[in-house]
UniProtKB/TrEMBL annotation:
Cell location: Cytoplasm
InterPro entries listed in its UniProt record: KH_dom-like_a/b (IPR015946), RbfA (IPR000238), RbfA_dom_sf (IPR023799)
Protein keywords: Cytoplasm, Ribosome biogenesis
GO cellular component: cytosol
Family: Belongs to the RbfA family.
Protein name as it appears in the record: Ribosome-binding factor A
Single GO MF descriptor: ribosomal small subunit binding
GO biological process: maturation of SSU-rRNA
Protein purpose: One of several proteins that assist in the late maturation steps of the functional core of the 30S ribosomal subunit. Associates with free 30S ribosomal subunits (but not with 30S subunits that are part of 70S ribosomes or polysomes). Required for efficient processing of 16S rRNA. May interact with the 5'-terminal helix region of 16S rRNA.
Length: 118
């Protein structure tokens, strides 16, 4: 299995899970979610799905619970939609890089404002 195939599978899973979250998952707990990346193992037996969640801490917790509950459905759907012998085992991981970037931006702006006031 080449690197190109793994990259294609990762991108396919990312797109399909994003689509499922937007249009297919009916769990009312699921709020605003962005699938940021997917990392599959070399044998494509498992894939880590990284998501960024928006909202309050309570909303994020509810969204996480809804997504976790939907993992079996998402794996089954990926299995139907992809031409592979096995559907990869999916695991959810929180990607906090967007939040981190936003916080850094906030701090930079604050520093610039403080410098401007002196």
């Amino acid at each position: 299995m080449g690197q190109l195939r793994a990259e294609k599978v990762q991108e396919f899973i990312k797109q399909e899970i994003s689509k499922m979250i937007l249009t297919e998952l009916k769990d009312p707990r699921i709020g605003f979610v962005t699938v940021t990346r997917v990392e599959a193992t070399g044998d494509l037996r498992s894939a880590k799905v990284y998501v960024s969640l928006m909202g309050t801490d309570d909303q994020k917790a509810e969204t996480w619970a809804g997504l976790t509950k939907s993992l079996g459905y998402m794996r089954a759907e990926i299995g139907k939609r992809i031409r592979m012998r096995f559907a990869p085992e999916l695991s959810l991981h929180l990607d906090e890089t967007l939040e981190y970037s936003a916080r850094i931006q906030e701090l930079i702006l604050k520093i610039k404002q403080e410098e401007g006031n002196q």
